[in-house]
Amino acid sequence: MSGPFSPALFTFLADLREHNDRDWFNANKARYEADLLEPALDFVEAFGPRLEAISPHFVADPRRTGGSLFRIYRDTRFSKDKSPYKTTAGLFFRHERGKETAAPGFYLHLAPGDVFAGSGIWHPDAVALKRIRDAIAAQPDAWREATAGRTVIGHALKRAPKGFDAGHPLIEDIKRKDFASMSRLAERDVTAPGFTDEYARICAADLPFMRFLCEALDVPV
After folding, report:
1. Staple 177 to which of 67, 155, 182, 211, CB 3.0 to 4.6 Å?
2. pLDDT given at position 4
3. Taking the complete model, does pTM exceed 0.85, yes or no?
């Protein structure tokens, strides 16, 4: 049984990077649908039951628009880069309350030479950010346990945020502005048979990290 994705997905994205204009995309739209769109939606649908088993509070939505697959069209209104298309494929499995409040989610990033699975929350608002920082400061052992063996990434302040002790043993984590765990993958991992199960395994392993964030933000996990 083949994997959910084929090498053609990465070939298409590499070609799109070289020809990021509407004429080329329209001439190659059949490739986009056959090599990226349909396989990605099939993956979301197949992953749904596995995500349900990990936690019933996260959503795998296989709709063509508005679902777990990020749209390929860039919003160029406020950007100096007017390239019309994203040259990556992103899938986000949001928390069921993610549209009403700050909450973490699971993510899959697909690009030539840049493939990873992620979980957590990126650029939370000020209220959510403080709640996570407060939780880390108050529960250092729980945070250490939640992040054990994880690669936590994101932006951070240079100095301790206001109201936090600069001498706290976890001050470097308290300085964070993003709280995301990343697992690097290779293109061959994504195109291998059984990748849906492998991605589910990664998400399940990230559940303690997600639980800490959910509890800090008072959303179920």
Report:
1. 155
2. 83
3. yes
